[in-house]
TrEMBL record:
The lineage of its organism: unclassified sequences, metagenomes, ecological metagenomes. Residues 1-20 are annotated as: Disordered. The keyword Transmembrane helix applies. The chain crosses the membrane at residues 40-57, 69-89. Keywords: Membrane, Transmembrane, Transmembrane helix. This is Unannotated protein. The keyword Membrane applies. Residues 1-11 have a biased composition (Acidic residues).
Length: 169
């Protein structure tokens, strides 16, 4: 083994620092979906380069380096770039605000609750999925509330009597 080649036990996949929760102390900040716009700009720039290379060299009949593949690559990269850019929603609602909105939607005092970030639709609109239990001990009600992470509207909510309440007997 040469001096420049790392040993197999040294090669590891790593999460970016903003996604790695190991050793993190304090409230966790969910990454904003608007980060998708950065690679979208790169895709669009490469699509423009491919289209320009194709347009400049398309007059060359039978070119082994530039053919219709350059145009198809430009079209595909442009489509991926547009979808990535338009799905880069900026989240205006954090999990604490989603928990407050969920309490207002269910209509009873909330005890235990948890929020999970999910995405819905073709353009991956960020949404908080909030599971809530009523404040009694044991909780008599439970609910699931979907809160839009972009504008804070309640997408859906469902409440029901807690079936686990029967377990106490």
């Amino acid at each position: 083994m040469s001096d420049t080649t790392p040993a197999d036990d040294e090669l590891r996949d790593q999460l970016p620092d903003d996604l790695n929760a190991k050793g993190f102390v304090g409230p966790y900040q969910f990454p904003d979906n608007s980060r998708r716009r950065r690679p979208a700009v790169i895709y669009l720039a490469i699509a423009v380069v491919c289209a320009v290379v194709w347009a400049v060299n398309r007059g060359d009949d039978g070119s082994p380096l530039v053919n219709e593949g350059w145009l198809w690559a430009a079209v595909v990269l442009a489509a991926v770039g547009v979808v990535s850019f338009t799905s880069g929603w900026r989240m205006q609602v954090d999990e604490k605000q989603a928990l407050v909105a969920a309490q207002g939607a269910v209509g009873w005092p909330v005890g235990h609750a948890s929020a999970q970030q999910v995405w819905r639709g073709f353009r991956s609109r960020p949404t908080w999925r909030v599971l809530v239990y009523s404040a009694e001990n044991p909780p008599r009600q439970r609910g699931l509330v979907l809160v839009d992470a972009v504008d804070g509207t309640i997408v859906e909510h469902l409440t029901e009597a807690n079936p686990e309440d029967d377990w106490q007997e």
